[in-house]
Structure formats: structure tokens, C-alpha cells
Amino acid sequence: MDEVETALMAFDSSETDKSSLVELLADSLDERVVALFLKTLLDKTEKDLVRVEVLKSLPFRKDSPINRVRFGEATMQILQGDDDLVRQYAAKTMRCFIACDGAIELLERIIRNESDDIDVRHNALSAIEANASSQNCRETLS
Question: Radius of gyration of the chain from Cα atoms?
């Protein structure tokens, strides 16, 4: 049994500190880790702090273009309706996924929605500002 398999088995245990396991697995490009992280991100019954740890790891991962899109889509799905804490981190993480289809439009809707959580809105704006070199982001900012 390899280290990834051991960590994945431990992740399913209720006695495990899942946040620590996310940190341990954060650099792994193993497809089993990708699948676990995607499942964790989209599982609203998972603890918010575990999901936040996955979101925090995404900007530093060196995933394949296909997996980057999968993570971007999952992050966008979180932004469309989830707990505000998780959405705050998802909005911040969108800096890395601005090229995903519909990302800029979603962030712009969040920014303009005055009834939305102020921290989510602020992080959405910072995701666009962080990509100001992109023509689409510059247009959104003007």
C-alpha cells in the first residue's frame, strides 16, 4: 500500500484530522487525490474547514489542463450556492480559474449583487483585479 492509498483510507475514517490529510496530499497529482479533492469540494455535508483547505491548496497545484478545468468548474459551482465561508475562499481561489468558461461573468454577478456577503464580493473583485492583464478582466473593471 502506497502513501497516497494510506492517506485516502485515513480520510474516510471519522477519527482523522482531514485538514492535515489535505495538506499532506496537496501536492499530489495522483488521480485518486484529484477525485477526492473534487468530491470533497462539492460535498456540502463535509466540514467547511476541510473544504476550505482544499480550496487553499488549488492555486499551488500543478494539475493537468483538464484537471484545472475540473477544479475551476467545481469552484464556480461552490460560488453559485454554498456556505458563505466556503464561498469566500472559492471567490479568492478563482484568481487561478479566471479562464474557465463563464468565470468572469459569474464573478461580475457576485460583485454587483449588493445582497451577497461582502467578503465573497470583495474576494470576487480581487480575483478579477489579480488578472487585470487579461483584456476581459480589464473590461470588467472599467
Answer: 16
- Measured at the CA of 93, the angle between CA 39 and CA 44, to 5 degrees, comes to 30
- Average the pLDDT over 104-123 and give the result: 95
At 106, which helix (H) or strand (E)?
Answer: helix 103-112
The model's pTM is 0.90
Residues 6+ apart with CB under 8 A from 17: none
Helix axis angle, 84-93 relative to 118-129, nearest 10°? 10
Spatial distance between the Cα atoms of 71 and 7, rounded to a whole number of angstroms: 21
Please give the angle made by the CA atoms of 72, 141 and 68, to the nearest 5 degrees. Answer: 10
pLDDT for 49 beyond 90: yes
Strands (E), the chain: none
